[in-house]
Fold this sequence. Notes:
5-stranded mixed beta sheet, 347 residues, disordered N terminus, alpha/beta, 10 helices
Amino acid sequence: MISFGRKKVTVGLDIGSGLVKVAVIEHGRGEPELVRVAISPLIADAIVEGEVMDPALVSEAVLAALEQAGVVSKDVVTAVGGRDVIIKKIQIERVKEQQARELMRWEAEQHVPFDMESVELDFQILDPDGDGLEMSVLLVAAKRDLVEHKIRLLGDAGLTARVVDVDAFALHNAFEVNYPDAMHGIVGLISVGNEVTTVNILEEGIPVLTRDLPIGTRRMREDLQRDCGLSADDAAALLQGHDQTPELRPIAEARGEEIAVGVERAVAYLAQSSRSTNRLRAVYTCGGGARVPGLTEALAARLRVPVEQASPLTRLKVRDGALASLVTDEVAPLLMLPIGLALRTAA
């Protein structure tokens, strides 16, 4: 078991549609240290398109991952994401923060396609020390039901959400720690999951735009089963392998092309909405699907920028034995989100 003692420890809990991932980080006087990681598989279809179909199965997988990680605390940091979360960079009249808070609901009505009575809102002034007539604000809106469902799911497992973050911000937390040189210009951070690929566009190190694409490793596995007559297990083995095969190549190229188009559209939208002339300069991938052989190459060929598989362990301090029997290179792409959550500290 992990002894919390007097040291501040944060437990990041990422509940995906295929895996539950836990990262435990100790925040001492020096730099944060990853002290334990655990990954627990989730039975197929327990979560479909972000909707929990069987809360009992999900609770069971969550508790198994926490036990595997030696976590005894009931407090976790988790996140929400998907189409019911909106992140948007907007320009408003320069006012003090308190006035901005009063203005934000009205501003949100102009930019958020949700009923304002059903939304949780937050914002951050991006240029608080500026002296222009306008200021840049990062507006974040999440449907209240989404947050309440996540809190209720944790409650069913006997857990409390110390913080409910947004997926894009949690990914950014881990990315910033490990890739400080990527915090300038326009950069794409792409998380390829089981059902969904999330495209995050960072501008000068700030996540200003996020888009979800209905493409993930499940779709690629189904492609292999349908087009090549493979079993689900054989298709999964190809996706998790180290080499590109004749069966996998056209599928990695086709799905990579779709993801790349999603990135291009997001960058084009950002340029149009913010009148920015900056171009995409690099892309980093994470999530389980980032390891699919040939996907990185397919993205690079279409986008014509450097594409690199990102690891949340590049610069993060890692305690001996933190990953136990896990193979570091295989699990690292999976850990960007849970580590980003665990990097959060809360009072």
